[in-house]
Every structure is written in C-alpha cells, then in structure tokens.
Design a protein that fits this description.
The chain has a two-stranded antiparallel ribbon with strand order 1-2. It is built from 13 helices and two strands; from the N terminus they run ααααααααααββααα. The chain is 65% helix and 2% strand. The structure holds fe (ii) ion (FE2) (2 copies). One fe (ii) ion binds next to helix 6 and helix 7.
Length: 332
C-alpha cells in the first residue's frame, strides 16, 4: 500500500544559479521525463529522500499485513479466507519489491529494518488503527487500498526507474485489493440490518484515518516543493486527498452508507466535494507513536524479526556453502 510521505523539516529546491554542472544536467534529465537509474549520478538529497520514501513505503506494506492478518483465522467463509490470504501475501510481496528498490540506492534491507525497529523510520499512520470487526476488513480494502492506489498510480510516473517500475505491478494488485474490500462492504450493506450497521460503523471509523493517509495539508508539507521538482512526488497531498473524496463519495452512496461528515457536499463551482479535513492533531499523535496500536504493531514486527533470525542465518550459511562449492569447481 501506502507511500505516505511523512515530512519533517526540509528546504526549497535550488535555483539554477546555485547548481553545479552535474546538478543542472540531472535536472534536465528529470525535466525530459527520463528515468534515473541506480548507477546514474544523482544529488545526495535526491538519494536520501528516495531512501526515506521507498523505505517508509516498504515498511508500510509489511506492517500493513498485521491489521488484516488478524482476521485470516476468523474469515466468515473459506472463499473469503482464501481471498484475504492472497491479499495479505501480496502485501508481503510489495514490501519485498520496495526493499529491493531501496537497496539499489545503497542501503541494505537489514539497515532499513533496524531503523524501523529503532523508531527512526516511520510507516503509514493508518496501520495503527485496530480492525475490530469483519466489516473492517472490507473498509480497509475499499478505503485504505483505495487511497493507496490513488497515490501509487501517480507514482508510476516517478523519476526513479526501479521505484516507478515496482509501482506498475503493485497497482495491478492494489486494484484487486480495493475490489475485494468493496465486495465485502456490498455484501454487508445489503445483508441484515446488523450487518449493514457493522459496515456503517467500519466506514465511520476508517474514513478520517484514510484521508490522513495522503499526509499533512500542503500548507504544512515542507518537502513537497523539492520532491515535486525532482518528480519523486507527482501530486500534492491535498490534490490526492480531494481526488480520493470525489471518487469515494459515489461509491458510498451506491452502498447506501453515509460518509461521517455533515459538511460533505458537492461544490458546483469547483466541480469537487467540499469536506471537513481530518483532525491533524490526531494524525501527528499517531505518527509520533501514540496511536491506538503503535506499540502492538512494533512489538509484532520485532518479534517476527527475532524469531526469524535462525532462518536468515540458515539461508546465509547455505549461500556461503554454495559459494565455496562454486569456487572449488572453478579452481579444479
Ligand atoms: Fe500493497
Ligand atoms: Fe493492498
């Protein structure tokens, strides 16, 4: 899922007269929409920003397995269980592509994971909310994967080659995720009054956390100008959030559910919905580690990492043996 760009501190892009010849040539390539590849020259800030963004994105995919994984054993039918398993497994795959893309920038996967566990890297705020009922699995697919697609479709055009190519496949899978979520919502919204109430309750709880996934408002989003100049970011947070609201409102209407916002209305002049923005205070709380499930999520990740140590060591040992065997054959 979920390249939420979580921005703290930052600066404005350089003016051409402040750039070296290398930087000027690099910016020219960006303006020509050429992809930047791992061995190409790139400014240090570009490399660092990408490591942070792709790393956070990879962490989000992996941590994002936890809220839904919570429901695999309790899926209501065998078919739903198989679908959910496939979906959660896809997210692990997204994490892997993205860690690989980050590694092409000169950081190792272990290092990224270490930074996550030490609290030095973040992941999308949305995964710090609990999934309390089966309807939440529907709401997560519909809204969370839906918001992720909005972001990731744009990122297919990002300037860094490995990142943009990873997005192409990820987007195809995300659209399956979004549909499976919507299908659960549809079933529940057309089910018994209790089921419909569960679907409405899930929408009530996930609406604002989903809007927060696009990151802080543009007015507070300090890296935006530089990231947009580098075409690491294609649209601003507010643009994507608006696009998401405009797309999702008719889907909620079709379900017969109500978006929990009294101020939501179509604005004829803007040709877009007006809506109440999220509570940004809550967003910063969650991002800074004080959301409902932050502790639980990190504990689960650290436990999985520690318990998997024997397996990683086994793989590395196998690799060393194969290498030694190959060397013997070559030297024989
Ligand atoms: Fe994903
Ligand atoms: Fe997904």
């Amino acid at each position: 899922m979920y390249a939420q760009v979580i921005e703290t501190g930052g600066k404005q892009p350089k003016r051409p007269d402040e750039m070296s010849a290398e930087e000027k040539a690099f910016m020219q390539r960006i303006e020509n929409n050429e992809k930047i590849e791992p061995k190409d020259w790139m400014p240090e800030g570009y490399r660092r920003t990408l490591i942070r963004q792709i790393g956070q994105h990879a962490h989000s995919e992996v941590v994002g397995q936890l809220p839904e994984g919570n429901w695999i054993t309790r899926a209501p039918t065998l078919e739903r269980k198989a679908i959910l398993l496939a979906k959660v497994q896809d997210e692990a795959g997204h994490g892997l592509y993205l860690y690989c893309a980050a590694e092409t920038l000169g950081v190792s996967r272990d290092e990224l994971i270490e930074r996550l566990h030490a609290g030095k890297m973040k992941y999308s705020s949305i995964f710090n909310y609990p999934t309390l009922t089966w309807a939440d699995v529907g709401a997560v697919g519909w809204l969370v994967d839906g918001a992720a697609i909005m972001n990731q479709v744009a990122l297919q055009r990002t300037s860094y080659g490995p990142y943009s190519r990873a997005m192409v496949r990820i987007c195809k899978e995300e659209s399956f995720h979004q549909r499976q979520g919507y299908d659960i919502m549809l079933k529940m919204a057309r089910g018994t009054p209790e089921q419909k109430a569960m679907a409405q309750d899930a929408l009530n709880r996930f609406w604002y956390p989903a809007l927060m996934m696009f990151g802080p408002p543009d007015s507070d989003s300090v890296h935006t100008a530089q990231s947009m100049a580098w075409k690491i970011k294609i649209n601003t947070n507010d643009e994507l959030r608006q696009r998401f609201v405009d797309q999702t409102v008719p889907q909620a209407e079709y379900l017969g559910l109500t978006i929990p916002d009294e101020n939501l209305r179509w604005n004829e002049e803007r040709q877009a919905y007006d809506f109440t923005p999220p509570d940004w205070e809550e967003f910063y709380q969650v991002i800074n580690g004080y959301g409902p499930c932050n502790r639980e999520r990190m504990d689960a990740r650290i436990k999985a990492w520690e318990e998997g140590a024997w397996f990683r060591e086994g793989l590395a040992e196998y690799g060393r043996k194969m290498e030694a065997q190959r060397a013997k054959v070559v030297n024989a």
